[in-house]
Amino acid sequence: MTPRGAELAGYQGQPGSFSARAAARCGKPVAFPTFERTLRALLAGEIACAVLPAVNRVDGPILESLDALARSLAELESAIAVEAEIEVPVRLVLAAPEGLALESVREVHSQAAVLRQCRHLLARLDAIPIDTHDTAYAAFRVKEAGGPRAAVCSEEAALEAGLLILEEDVSDVRPNTTRFWRLARAGATADAVPGDDVAPDSLAPRVVFYAGVRASSALAEAGAELLSLPGTPGDPVRGFAVVPEKNVARAAAGTGRPAAGERVIWLGPAPEFVRPPRMRDLPKVTEVREPSFVAVGPFVVGGGHRAVIAGPCAVESPEQVARLARAVARAGATALRGGVFKPRTSPYSFQGHGLEALGWLKDAGDAAGLPIVTEVMAPAQVVPVAERADVLQIGARNCQNYDLLKEAGRSSRPVFLKRGFGTTVEEWLSSAEYLLDAGCKNVILCERGIRTFEKATRGTLDLGGLLVARSLTHLPLFADPSHAAGRRDLVPGLARAAWGAGVDGLMIEVHDAPESALSDGPQALLPEDLEELLDEFGILPGASGSVERIRRAIDVVDGGIARLAAQRLELARRVGAVKKASGRPIRDEAREASVRARFAEALGGDTPGATRLADTLIDLALEAEKPGDA
Ligand code: PEP
Ligand code: MN
Q1: Sign of the alpha-carbon dihedral angle for 10, 12, 14, 15
Q2: Ligand 2 centre from 321 Cα, in Å?
Q3: Angle 213-221/248-255 helices, nearest 10 degrees?
Q4: Is the pLDDT of residue 626 over 90?
Q5: Rounded CA gap, 367 and 123, in Å?
Q6: If pLDDT is split at 50, 70 and 90, which confidence band does 611 have?
Q7: For the ranges 11-20, 245-254, 528-537, which has the lowest average pLDDT?
Q8: What is the pLDDT of residue 606?
Q9: Is residue 198 packed enough to be buried (19+ CB in 10 Å), middle (13-18) or exposed (0-12)?
Q10: For 504-523, what is each residue's pLDDT tens digit?
Q11: How far is the CA of 531 from the centre of ligand 1 (A)?
């Protein structure tokens, strides 16, 4: 939700600057000459929000803008709220008018904070740093003035000013980013939009202004990031603190009663206010908080962890479920499914082997090292099933069986709640609210296809509904492509679509003799189909995988590496051709260093091992790019 998307977002600087880029992500950008003027426009209601650079990855707190903010707070107390933090990549280039060689640069123009982000470059060039108003302005100044002058700015600003790029990515630390704060007038924030049940889509950072030694140490103890500012005669120790959401209560307690002469101002909802849920009627399921996650042994989902539950539709015999448990564990699934009570449309169809089969399922799971997931259809089944099952499933047909939801919610087991094929997203979330309200700590939601006019598939996998649910709830979200498709051939495609849409996990039915399965045979994947699919998603094979199985997974990874390497070579050829055509030097050392740093970061950060591997890979790539080798 972007309630003020089309409204005015003020920033200091001019078009082409990084601030302008940040502002464009908040509304229609409006330029102001100074930070003070931007803040005044905000308080006067001329603009809906103001966007201020707060912290740079290389240089730390941006003193100029934070100082302006601190000064206006001193006058206006808590009239300003930080609504969101926006991270903007800062790719700085060194640019100059045509004809100026790198060695001849004697002055480098840019904003003070930006000049501090490229000290290595300044040292290497032996040039004088000249502080200008903003990066885009520096580019225009340099173009106008000519001579041995270059500017550090964005590529966009350099091109706009008609400069040529002498060196790319000149920040001392790469990749470089700046975190901007979106500021609003307190009380005019999205939380307070009247008649609107939905709160903002992201957690606002909890920012506090502090003045005083005691306040600053209490905030530091609460794990806050301190952005300290140079002192003033009135406030020798002052700055801003960014408090992690989970430590808000601690920070509030620690700074609750500031010592004499000290001050603490929360820029946004004060900590004593409970953050309103996204939907008023569903306070638990739509609570604004970090993503919740569920962990049962190797089965971990939510908050970035993704998992696959696989197994047969129904537990048919001890041997059948033991075989399939081994097969899905080898493929990489981290939980085993299997129905012992089966909801069937016809009373004459196989109804499940009941509690006896629960023992078979449990033994199979134990032998394969997998927790088990099985469906309960009636309140009376909850207690006996919860004795042995690790996760209770509530099926589509029972999504709105409130007595069952209450009983399942009271058991101590996690509950896997499928969306009914005739329930709206809101009704589905309401059912989850019943579970949470009954005391269930671990709820997982699963979209499994809704009923539409389409008859070619068993259901219609509602990915749009899943994404709506994602925007409303912190609970882990699964998709079940098997019941949505009803046909084996469509399952991998739907699974890919759901995985691409960002689900936390998939539930997939698997059978090794689908023709003779007692239920849902036509939609069951063969174990080898599951292996292929999970390899594609980069899910590691189970520890019990054979050498052959693990080699198949390795082959898939190798195929991906080879394809990406070929694509990279082609891109390198193209950038070479473009540089040649525009007369730019082919070799760019700063760019090379930035690519190496990015590789090292992706490979595990600043360790010697990661750096060595990154260097080796880039050396190989450069070697392969040499003309004549193509
Ligand atoms: C099942 O998972 O076996 C099942 C019956 O699913 P659904 O409730 O989604 O139809
Ligand atoms: Mn089924």
Answers
A1: negative
A2: 14
A3: 160
A4: no
A5: 64
A6: confident
A7: 245-254
A8: 72
A9: middle
A10: 999 999 999 999 999 999 99
A11: 22
CB 244 within 8 A of CB 223: yes
Burial of residue 593 (CB within 10 Å: 0-12, 13-18, 19+) is: middle
Decide if pLDDT at 190 tops 70: no
pLDDT at 338: 98
Residue 461 Cα to ligand 1 middle (Å): 14
Alpha-carbon distance of 83 to 320, in angstroms, equals 55
Which residue is associated with the tokens 């609970």?
A: 475
Count the helices and strands in the chain (H runs, E runs).
21, 25
Q: Is 419 in the pocket of ligand 1 (CB under 6 A)?
A: no
**pLDDT per residue as tens digits for the range 357-403:** 999 999 999 999 999 999 999 999 999 999 999 999 999 999 999 99
pLDDT digits (tens, 9 = 90+) for 115-124: 999 999 999 9
pLDDT band at 627 (very low <50, low <70, confident <90, very high): low
In order of 91, 536, 598, the CA distances from 174 in angstroms are: 9, 31, 7
Which residue is listed with tokens 């003033």?
232
Tell me which residue has tokens 């209490």: 218
- Dist. CA 296–CA 335, nearest whole Å: 9
Percent residues over pLDDT 70 in the chain: 94
Q: Is the CB of 302 under 6 A from ligand 1?
A: no
The amino acid at 153: C
Alpha carbon distance 127, 105 (integer Å): 7
Task: Name the closest-CA residue to atom 8, ligand 1.
Answer: 395
Q: Is the CB of 395 under 6 A from ligand 1?
A: yes
| Encoded tokens for 227 | 């952005």
Cβ atoms 141, 205 nearer than 8 A: no
SS3 track for 44-104: CCCCCEEEEEEEECCCEECHHHHHHHHHHHHHHCCCEEEEEEEEEECCCEEEECCCCCHHH
DSSP 8-state symbol, 488: G
Give the Å distance between the CA of 395 and the centre of ligand 1: 5
Between 86 and 253, name the one with better pLDDT.
86
For the Cβ of 486 lying below 6 angstroms from any atom of ligand 1, the answer is no
Q: State how beta strands 177-185 and 49-56 pair.
A: antiparallel
Phi-psi region of 45 (alpha: psi -120 to 50; beta: other; left: phi over 0): left
pTM score, whole prediction: 0.72
Question: Tokens representing 371?
Answer: 């927790």
Q: How many residues does the chain have?
A: 630
Q: How far is the CA of 523 from the centre of ligand 1 (A)?
A: 12
Residue 198 pLDDT > 70, yes or no? Answer: no
Q: Which ligand neighbours the alpha carbon of 520 most closely?
A: 2
* Cα–Cα distance, 256 to 480 (Å, whole number): 48
β-pairing, 49-56 with 60-61?
A: antiparallel
Does the pLDDT at position 74 exceed 80? no
Nearest alpha carbon, ligand 1 atom 3: 313
